């Protein structure tokens, strides 16, 4: 397995662990992100919803990358989700500064995931081209 693919699998697994942490400790992590309002039942509910999304995307990407099928697609989905989070942070008004910072981090994560998706797609394409049958004159 290539170093790039292995690093992407670790990244996807880290995403799953983030989701698991959000699900198990929604109040604590919500307070870190939102501040004092993070202890409310609504904030905890929102964190658990985000946690399920992170776990599903992280697990899906990890499995796809490990099986060498559609890994680039899953990394692209992670990029789209992070870009959506970044845009949400930009268009939302009256957010605490820490949420604006998280939006910047989400934009950086979206960019990184898209670049990784492209690299994985390039390596997969090269492997598929190498295993394709040679055309014959005929």
Write structural notes for this entry:
- With 138 residues, the protein is an all-alpha fold.
- It has one domain.
- Helices cover 83% and strands 0% of the residues.
- It has five helices and no strands.
- It has helices at 3-24, 26-34, 41-67, 71-91, 97-131.
- α2 (26-34) crosses α3 (41-67).
- The longest helix is centred in the C-terminal third of the chain and has 35 residues, at 97-131.
- It is elongated and about 70 Å long.
Summarize the structure.
The protein has 138 residues and is mostly helical. It is built from five helices and no strands.
Radius of gyration over all CA atoms, rounded: 18 Å
Mind describing the biggest β-sheet? none
Instruction: Specify the number of helices.
Output: 5
Number of strands: 0
Q: In whole angstroms, how far apart are the ends? A: 38 Å
Strand content: under 5%
Q: Low-confidence segments, ≥5 residues, pLDDT <50?
A: none
Overall geometric form: elongated
Mean pLDDT: 89
In terms of quaternary structure, what is this? single chain
The percentage helix is over 70%
SSE order, as H and E?
HHHHH
**Given the helix and strand composition, which structural class is it?**
mainly alpha
How many domains would you count in the coordinates? Answer: 1
Primary descriptors:
elongated; 5 helices; 138 residues; mainly alpha
Secondary structure elements and pairings:
Layout: H1 3-24, H2 26-34, H3 41-67, H4 71-91, H5 97-131
Helix pairs in contact: 1-2, 1-3, 2-3, 3-4, 4-5
């Amino acid at each position: 397995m290539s170093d790039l693919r292995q690093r992407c699998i670790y990244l996807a697994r880290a995403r799953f662990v983030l989701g698991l942490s959000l699900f198990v400790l929604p109040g604590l992590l919500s307070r870190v992100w939102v501040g004092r309002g993070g202890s409310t039942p609504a904030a905890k509910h929102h964190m658990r919803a985000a946690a399920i999304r992170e776990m599903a995307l992280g697990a899906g990407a990890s499995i796809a990358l490990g099986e060498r099928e559609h890994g680039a697609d899953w990394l692209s989905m992670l990029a789209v989700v992070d870009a959506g989070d970044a845009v949400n942070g930009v268009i939302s008004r009256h957010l605490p500064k820490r949420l604006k910072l998280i939006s910047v981090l989400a934009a950086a994560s979206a960019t990184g995931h898209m670049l990784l998706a492209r690299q994985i797609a390039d390596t997969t394409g090269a492997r598929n081209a190498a295993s394709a049958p040679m055309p014959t004159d005929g």
